[in-house]
Every structure is written in structure tokens, then in C-alpha cells.
Amino acid sequence: MTVVRDDGDGLVAWLAPGTKLLRPVLPDGRDLRDVGPVEMFGAGRALQRDTWRGTGVLKVAPTGRPWSVWCFWADDASFRGWYVNLEDPHRRDGAGIVTQDHVLDLWITPDRIVHWKDEDELEGAVAAGRYSAADAERFRADARNVEQLVSRWESPFADGWEAWRADPSWGVPELPDGITWDYDADSGRGDR
Question: Which CATH class is domain 2-21+47-168?
Fold first, then answer.
């Protein structure tokens, strides 16, 4: 991703169309969702090289927040909405930024309607032992807190990111070779 802003308020990064990326898949290359909402959390995982298809995404990760907000646009450059990815607050390590997904997500339309996503997968993660019932309730509380931010129209939603546009001179970042990833199905954590 291309860093747009990195300061005390957080990290903002751009995922350009056509960017090469790594995505977690089942060891045989199938999509994680192919095995269902419980099995996907107990199955082994591998990384697969892929390409971001579709329009670019602007990721806004406010400092210390257990979520990031991804801005999506349509092919005609009209704003489609905000995707809220519930996750650990971003932290830095020697190689970059680290976070852990909390499964539950939100979709917020341009007219500020909030839709919850992947509730079945969060239940599956609890059933598989990936997260505890207490973790799941904390993630739901985080989602309700985001709903309150939206209802009060606070940052980062009120910051005008939907009008942001990438500099057309920016290139597409390269994905380095030799990246490895060890996945521990018991903890759900991976190490580079």
C-alpha cells in the first residue's frame, strides 16, 4: 500500500487497483469461506499471491482504535461507502504494521446507514475456539461504539475521506519475493 498519512492521529494508506497482495487461503488454495463459518477457523491456512481487483481502497486506521475504516468507490469514482474492519489496534513491529482481524465487520452507506456483516462467522469463530464468548461480546461492543460515532458523525467518517483521490502519478507498489507466513490454527495467529 502507499502511505498517504502517518502521524499521531493514525495511518492512512492507499491500496491501488492492480496491487499484488497476499491473501490467506486453505492449504489447497480454496477460499476460507468454502468450508463454512466454523471450519474456516480450525483449518490450516496458506498465503496465496493475488491481485487487488476493483477500484482502489483507502484504509484509515486511527491510533489506538480496535478497527480501521476502508473507503470504497465505484468504477465511476462515486463513493460507495465505508467498510469498518474490527481488529486489534495497529501496532508497529520491525517489519511494518501488525493487527489481528476480529471477524465482525460493518458496512456504512453514504446516507449513514450501518449494516452488520459476518455475524455468522463470528459465531463460527467462537464455536471453533478461535475467540471466546467474551471476546465476541467485546467485538460487538466495539461495533456499537462505531455505530455511535456514525450517529454523531465523528472522525474518521466526518473527515472528508470520501472526497479524497489518489495522486495519478503514484505507481502500484511491488510485493517483495520471499515472504513466508507460519499459521497457528490454535491461536489463529500468523508470523512472518
Answer: mainly beta
Q: How far apart are CA 93 and CA 91, in angstroms?
A: 7
**pLDDT over 60 (residue 57):** yes
3-class DSSP string for 74-142: CCCCCEEEEEEEEECCCEEECCEEECCEEEEEEEECCCCCEEEECHHHHHHHHHCCCCCHHHHHHHHHH
- Tell me whether the omega of the peptide bond preceding residue 156 falls within 30 degrees of 0, making it cis: yes
d(CA 7, CA 9): 5
pTM here?
0.89
Tell which phi-psi region holds residue 45, choosing left (phi > 0), alpha (psi between -120 and 50) or beta.
Answer: beta
Contact criterion met (CB below 8 Å) for 150 and 158:
no
> Tens of pLDDT along 36-56?
888 888 888 888 899 999 899
In whole numbers, what is the pLDDT of the chain averaged over residues?
A: 91
CA distances from 118 to 33, 46, 63, 143 (A): 11, 22, 24, 12
